[in-house]
Design goal:
Layout (H helix, E strand, L loop, with lengths): L7 E5 L4 H13 L5 E5 L3 H5 L12 E5 L2 E4 H11 L15 H19 L19
């Protein structure tokens, strides 16, 4: 069994078009390749006991060195791993969690209506192999 203790893994909804576009962006922005990516319903999520949609509106979960982050806190911790200038957006940490999570919830509830479902999961794109976990 693979040891994930020092990994930084972004878990995402593989059916969500917004999530797939976000993963594509993160792969390009993460030039030092710190981040790995896995679908919420995948094998890696099961191994790490990441609940698939622990919250019906949660579409991104961030696993960082054995800590698990949800909702807006997950997004901010992912941003913190990116290089300059993207990591500057971590400043939104000063916004109270209940406000950040409310915004996250609104987007999460409406993501399929606003952005649609992905025709295929980004996992199927060979150019991202090595960054993507099952």
């Amino acid at each position: 069994m693979q040891n994930f203790s020092n990994h930084r893994i972004v878990f995402y909804d593989g059916e969500c078009a917004l999530c797939n576009r976000t993963v594509s962006f993160l792969i390009k922005a993460d030039r030092k390749q710190k981040l790995k990516f896995a679908p919420l319903g995948g094998i890696t999520a099961k191994i790490l006991n990441i609940p698939e949609f622990a919250d019906v509106d949660a579409s991104v979960v961030f696993y960082n060195n054995e800590k698990v982050y949800y909702k807006s806190t997950a997004i901010l911790n992912i941003i913190r791993e990116l290089p300059f200038p993207w990591n500057l957006f971590y400043v939104f940490k000063i916004v109270p969690t209940f406000i950040r999570d409310y915004c996250y919830k609104v987007i999460g509830k409406n993501r399929y209506n606003w952005f649609g479902k992905a025709k295929s999961c980004i996992m199927n794109e060979s150019k991202y192999k090595g960054r993507l976990l099952d």
